[in-house]
């Protein structure tokens, strides 16, 4: 038959100690209270209540250490739990939140998932006569459970305002508020919305200790931003789109539907890729592209015919109210202006009296 026992004790005032490996095994002969065999579980410099601790053990090896300690309510019951699978103790956890003072604690496990503790509870008040403070016998049933959480107040980015195309480090605190070690805890990071398409990446915590705080860091390649601006690279922003990280040689198509109603006839649009580190090239000019856009309907030539006097008559179509110039050439390379005019109704009839001087004559209409 195998027998095992656990040893915990108070030493040097208000320190609870246990054998260094937490197993409860008997140390070797000649054992002394040294750091090799001794593990400090809890120290309280302000109260001797810690000497009045009690311990309970389950059949599966779980352990609970309970004691009373000063709190915001004068005094409350605290506990620590031992996970036999990971062989570690969790951090202290406050179990009661009441104005009474707890003492004389006894505890026992019910199975592996529930702890029952019985203790005296006394209301300490300056109005009570000595020896007349009422004392109650109280029982607490505490179910052991799992409880993972993130502390949003400790979530920050370094640097606070990273440059597009650079790298930022996201820092976060993951809390294990439960009573056992959690293994392979996944912390995922998302952009804009918690959905698969928006996931930035994830970090896996191998072991999250009970009642412990775990630092989570994630290196985030900050996406670049492609912007379309009007008139200049720093002009009015028309459109912006985040460009995710691209593999070497990879490209992405960006489209933008633009309502140009009421805008000037001639426009210059610039595409700008923001961020000084978004491109490993030799010129920052490669991060900017320019496009000239005209809202003027290109003029086109309609029917033409020779008149009896040898001149040539043709129809020019365009937008009413705009100015056009009719040009002519003998070789489609060198063009000379013949006449300029304003289209009154979108269709103009133009007569070239100089056509009699040429056997071959090409025409085109242009805007100024």
Structure description:
The chain has 368 residues and is mainly β. 0% of the residues lie in helices and 50% in strands. The protein is built from no helices and 26 strands. The protein has strands spanning 9-11, 15-19, 38-43, 54-57, 63-69, 76-83, 88-89, 93-94, 101-110, 114-122, 135-143, 148-158, 167-176, 182-190, 199-208, 212-221, 224-230, 236-243, 266-274, 288-294, 300-306, 312-317, 323-329, 336-342, 347-352, 362-366. Strands 4, 5, 6, 7 and 8 form a five-stranded antiparallel β-sheet that branches. The N and C termini lie far apart (107 Å). Residues 26-36 and 276-282 have low confidence and may be disordered.
What is the helix/strand order?
EEEEEEEEEEEEEEEEEEEEEEEEEE
Radius of gyration: 42 Å
Percent of residues in helices = under 10%
Hey, roughly how much beta strand do the residues contain?
over 45%
- Briefly note the structural class of the backbone: mainly beta
Overall geometry comes to rod-shaped
């Amino acid at each position: 038959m195998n027998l095992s026992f656990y040893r915990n004790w108070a030493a040097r005032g208000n320190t609870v100690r246990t054998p260094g490996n937490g197993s409860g095994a008997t140390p070797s002969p000649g054992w002394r209270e040294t750091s090799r065999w001794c593990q400090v579980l809890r120290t309280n410099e302000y109260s001797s209540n810690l000497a009045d601790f009690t311990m309970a053990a389950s059949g599966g090896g779980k352990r609970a250490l309970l004691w009373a300690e000063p709190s915001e309510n004068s005094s409350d019951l605290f506990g620590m739990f031992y996970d036999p699978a990971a062989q570690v103790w969790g951090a202290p956890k406050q179990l009661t939140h009441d104005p009474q003072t707890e003492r004389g604690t006894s505890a026992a496990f019910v199975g592996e998932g529930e702890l029952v503790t019985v203790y005296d509870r006394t209301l300490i008040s300056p109005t009570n006569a000595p020896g007349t403070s009422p004392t109650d016998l109280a029982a607490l049933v505490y179910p052991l459970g799992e409880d993972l959480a993130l502390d949003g107040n400790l979530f920050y980015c370094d640097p606070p305002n990273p440059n597009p195309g650079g790298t930022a480090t996201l820092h976060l605190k993951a809390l294990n508020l439960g009573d056992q070690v959690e293994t392979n805890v996944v912390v995922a990071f998302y952009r804009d919305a918690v959905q698969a398409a928006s996931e930035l990446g994830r970090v896996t915590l191998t072991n999250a200790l009970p009642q412990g705080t775990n630092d989570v860091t994630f290196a985030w390649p900050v996406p670049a931003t492609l912007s379309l601006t009007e008139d200049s690279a720093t002009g009015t922003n028309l459109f912006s789109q985040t460009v995710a990280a691209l593999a070497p040689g990879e490209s992405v198509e960006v489209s933008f539907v633009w309502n140009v109603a009421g805008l000037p006839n001639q426009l210059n649009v610039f595409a700008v890729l923001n961020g000084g580190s978004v491109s490993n090239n030799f010129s920052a000019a490669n991060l900017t592209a320019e496009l000239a856009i005209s809202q003027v309907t290109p003029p086109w030539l309609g029917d033409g015919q020779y008149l009896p006097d040898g001149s040539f008559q043709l129809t020019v179509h365009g937008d009413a109210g705009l100015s056009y110039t009719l040009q002519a050439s003998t070789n489609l390379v060198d063009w000379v202006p013949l006449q300029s005019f304003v289209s009154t109704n979108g269709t103009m009839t133009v007569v070239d009296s100089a056509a009699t001087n040429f056997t071959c004559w090409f025409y085109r209409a242009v805007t100024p």
